[in-house]
Amino acid sequence: MNYEAVIGLEVHVQLKTASKMFTRVAAGYGAPPNTLTDPVVLALPGALPVLNKEALDKIIKAGLMLGCTIAPVCKWDRKNYFYPDSPKNYQISQYDQPICLAGSVEIELPGEARNIMGEHKQIPLTRIHLEEDVGKLTHEVHDSLVDYNRAGTPLMEIVSEPAMHSAEEAFAFLTSLRMTMVQGGISDCDMEKGQLRCDANISIRPIGQTKLGVKVELKNLNSISYVRDGIALEIRRQTAVLTGGGSIVQETRQYDGEAGTSVAMRSKEMAHDYRYFPDPDLLPVQVDAAWRATIQATIPELPYARQRRFITQYQLPYTITAVLVPERALADFFEEVAQLCGHPQAVANWLVNDLRRELAAGGIALAVSKLRPAHLAALVNLVEQGEISMTAAKEVFNDMFQTGEAPAVIVMRKNLKQSTDSGALEQWVQAAIVANPKAVAEFLAGKEQAINAVKGAVMKASQGKANPRLVDELVRRQLLAGKS
Amino acid sequence: MNSSAEINIEYVARLARLALTATEQAKLSQQLGDILHYVDKLKQVEVAGIEPMAHGSPVFNVWAADVVVAGLSVEEALRNAPEQRADSIVVPKVVE
Amino acid sequence: MLAAKSISASELMQAFVARTTAVEGRVHAFNSRDEVGALGLAAASDARRAAGQARGPLDGIPIGFKDVIAVEGQPLTASSKMLANFISPYDATVTTKLKAAGAIPWGRLNLDEFAMGSSTENSAFGATANPWDLTRVPGGSSGGSAAAVAAGEMPGALGSDTGGSIRQPAAFCGLVGLKPTYGLVSRYGLAAFASSLDQIGTLTRTVGDAAQLLQVVAGHDSRDSTSLSTVIPDYSAALQKKSRPWRIGVPKEFFGLGLDAEIGAAVQQALAFYRSAGAEITEVSLPLTAEYAIAVYYLIATAEASSNLARYDGIRYGHRTHSATDAISIYAQSRAEGFGEEVKRRIILGTHVLSSGYYDAYYLRAQKVRTLIRGEFMRVFQDCDVLLSPTTPTAAFKLGEKSSDPLAMYLNDIYTIGVNLAGLPGISLPCGFTAGGLPIGLQIIGQPFGEAEMLTIAHTYEQGHSWHTKYPNL
To answer: pTM for the whole thing?
Structure first.
């Protein structure tokens, strides 16, 4: 029998705010243990929560980017459970009135080949709500240590519908979601820092059956490749169980990415009874049209929409857009330069090849690089207008990247200007024809590439400064003139 | 609906993380049974269409700007800790 | 008094220290006190006054704190074994305000553990006695605050009122007890019992003192989301104002069965006083409040408390058991050892009413009836400025008299609880004594943020009587 997997994801995304969700002590990663606390974080007697407006703005932005309905009224509920990483022993969350409803994430599946765009589809979302993160437990030999620095960090929970059917789709979902959240400035989504975390609900059913199979929750998918590998493993495991005549047990399993295995987690002492109730310390939030509009105005173009536009508007190949678009800064830079100089393909090539190489080599971000859009535009123009050769342009680019100087200055300093003095050129061409009789004969006999030897000699004579197009033109003219 | 005077003390005590002796359980069952019987009178009130009052006052949109305010030092944060090591709270080993 | 320099703050503080030393063995109003610190602050106050930098009428005045309100560097026990060794690393907002006004935090005052009770018998550190009769309770849960002021150990104290916890002890101890409108005084730094009902208030000898103390602690606080932005009037100035003839409503249900005859008579005399002062007295009806307020209160308060008290787990602070070895039993065991009987009872009840399958029948229904109760009060206030009633159905009862019957204890709060459910201000002031010499309390209930008018009406009564000048023989 053939089975179909049904996958839903629960993704937790930490919002990028300066202070915590319900108090104004700093939020952040990597500080020494218990240095980001206050009476609210530690749940000292008498401490009270106060909402972070920026966290609300950010989740509304996330919701609008994902096409969610923003609820006109949402409220805060307490989810009661005891755990050492939860200082109040309840988590402030949103239970039955989340701030964002529905919406979807556009995903792209792998194409037939690397240079062919894959199929796109919309994965529907159930909801997005806002809550607070918990502290961090470190397990030692005899006991555990608790650090509350992370406790109270604004955390967005994005719940998808059970609408994915393969590990590839789940991978694509998370890739797209991360790209969107990073480009919206909502989160840095660094999975190593726990800023993006993913749990998956996975079941399988015979193809054609509409009823869902028994669901297994898979946790600890803490890298994007673990999401793909862990889900693929779980689908294989469930298929093997059913094929072998067994049945699936509803359970929570922990994925071990290094070992490529998963184990059932120790079953909870009792079924969850979280006793949700509205938090009397926090008042409900009303989001009106004006607020929505203010946030809407800050939303960037969505990555896949932008990619489609780049392909049609700038005639860029898919592979180039697939490099440019996922990095908003790079894509923004591209558009700025392309607007300035009007040679989008050339600009894209500089960015995708040369700029990315230099950034990677220097280990720096585009935002802090010395390269100015106007300078790259000027460089592209110098090449397009035949002012400098491509070889020279590469040199100018590297110099520009290091010094931040304008290309004209560098060309002057390094004396890289292409020679367009046709008097000198004519002489070099004459000399080259005389010096290469064999190549000339072969070219005239119809061997096209033999012309390169003559052109090479001219370039050499000009010390690389001759405009190659002009050289080609002159050499051909003279050779053909000699023939007649 | 559940018969409201019934209370599963053992289950609730586990939820509330309260270790109760058998004597305490028996006493609480009886006392809370009385109280639940008393509050059963609320069933007489017609509440159809009435909004629940979850807060002391009907106000919306109270928040603060995202501006950092200094918190507690590690020493202050751990001052009342029953057990600490390496600037962290020590708890018995948690098994997942 | 201090402003007139007839006595220095240090002399005043020394007098209260001496009085406390003399009577505290019998009253047991304090959980702890820092005499050296208080005398130091008094000296600083005198220095300010000498330099012409006095901070106002409360500069140099000792004020007691119910032991649930945070003062930096001082214990905060909530009268619970759970917090027996807890030192607060921060100030409550009311503490910050009082310190800024120059007041001297004087002592941590006893209460029913986590403010759960009406007698101050539910304290891990022993009961407090009523200064008027040491065999009787001072009321609760702010019993330590009331007893301390009544015994002359301090001129005023802060308490907290969730269902009557300021007004009832004020009535039992012959004091003025003020519970402000929900949201007028910040709750930041008040160890929560029931968040939607709790409000910090004052216990003083006179209405004028209550007005001065409220003036300092009232006002919006950005650290408490439920604290409301409202203009704070000059309460002391308001006391002197002549306003139009008051319309006083008298809820007929509050004079029914169970009301002690002596108390009923004292309240009727107070009504006669107001009538003679030109007030228009109208009988009003609060049938839902009278019938259902206690049931609603015990569902909402315990549900919120079960969650509010979850933080007391012996992990980050507080009592940690020595008999547990794993992460599950450390909670259950520490909490079993750290909490007293009444706290456990309410946590269990509150957990139950929120648990799966019961939420709608109990908690949600209670919230809806609460809406109706608030509506009932607001309707009555369309025709009245204030409501007037007894504060309690009986005067102070004997220590141990009701501690075995929780429901009987809960029913004692019948006249005060509706005020908390509706979020209204209420005040209790002395209006006589029983034949046995026990104080009787008169309750005035105001409209939301109607403290000024409520205080003025109370002050008018006080000016016409001398109950507040009587002291217990200790």
So the answer is: 0.92
